[in-house]
Structure to design on (301 residues):
């Protein structure tokens, strides 16, 4: 069989595309899996188990929005099994909205919205990571000097859209936690986000490469000047803005990706457009002047 058959030439590119497609789906699936034991603590029946559920992460403000509630054993409930038989106070650190939450006796535990301070740098997008370390939650009963620390467990659920979270127990200085334990909650972008970002950045690079190729070939007079290409190049230049705007996670302006790629893509497109305009000016025929046309007509008579 002739290896130069037109159909055979498409087999290798098709297999390569299929492999890339399968690899991207595999990476996305693996990065989106959630473990069954991601929480650092599981409380016993006689503990006050604090449930912290992360809802969203704001990279530009270094804040993690979360919901906090408690689950208690029979020792802390009335005979009906639904309402608390004592006031339980939670101390949260590092929190900006609720450093202290009180669950009142005679009421069922409810859910409170709170906000934790995270550390990270959004300028490193898409490889930015944010961490709440340590996250300290303690439960007390009583007030003032008579307040007593209760056995406290912590269960963290960090399923935030676009982020993969991992929680683990850490030792904490007794100045922060009387029981010397806390949690570290780490957020990293999912593989799906990284793949999507990589595709968009590759598209931007290809646009710049195509424009540069056309401009250079025209400059070297290997292709004739076609003024329709001016509109095509201008359209590619303006296409960079929406592509930059839909990058997952909305990286802030001035991120490393702008310095490393976006600025150079825009510069290449502008330089290509300018070079093509120069070629148009250089190779286009000048229109005949009216007096020259009149002189030519007189000579012909």
């Amino acid at each position: 069989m002739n290896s130069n058959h037109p159909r055979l030439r498409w087999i290798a590119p098709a297999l390569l595309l299929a492999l890339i497609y399968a690899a991207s789906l595999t990476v996305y699936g693996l990065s989106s899996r959630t473990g069954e034991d991601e929480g650092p603590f599981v409380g016993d029946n006689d503990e006050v188990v604090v449930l912290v559920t992360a809802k969203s992460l704001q990279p530009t403000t270094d804040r993690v929005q979360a919901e906090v509630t408690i689950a208690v054993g029979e020792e802390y409930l009335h005979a009906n099994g639904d309402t608390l038989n004592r006031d339980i106070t939670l101390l949260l650190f590092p929190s900006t909205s609720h450093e202290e939450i009180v669950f009142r006796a005679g009421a069922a535990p409810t859910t409170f919205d709170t906000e934790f301070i995270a550390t990270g740098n959004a300028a490193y997008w898409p490889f930015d990571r944010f961490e709440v370390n340590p996250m300290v939650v303690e439960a007390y009963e009583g007030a003032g000097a008579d307040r007593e620390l209760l056995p406290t467990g912590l269960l963290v659920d960090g399923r935030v859209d676009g982020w993969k979270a991992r929680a683990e127990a850490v030792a904490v200085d007794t100045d922060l936690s009387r029981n010397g334990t806390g949690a570290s909650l780490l957020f990293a972008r999912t593989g799906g986000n990284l793949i999507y970002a990589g595709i968009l950045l590759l598209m931007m690079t290809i646009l710049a490469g195509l424009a540069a190729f056309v401009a250079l070939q025209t400059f070297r007079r290997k292709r004739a000047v076609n003024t329709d290409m001016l509109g095509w190049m201008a359209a590619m230049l303006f296409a960079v803005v929406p592509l930059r705007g839909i990058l997952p996670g909305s990286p802030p302006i001035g991120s490393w990706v702008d310095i490393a790629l976006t600025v150079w893509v825009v510069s290449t497109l502008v330089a290509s457009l300018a070079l093509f305009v120069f070629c148009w000016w250089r190779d286009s025929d000048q229109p005949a002047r009216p007096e020259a046309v009149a002189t030519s007509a007189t000579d012909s008579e």
Observations:
- The CA atoms of residues 92 and 137 lie 5 Å apart.
- The chain has six helices and eleven strands.
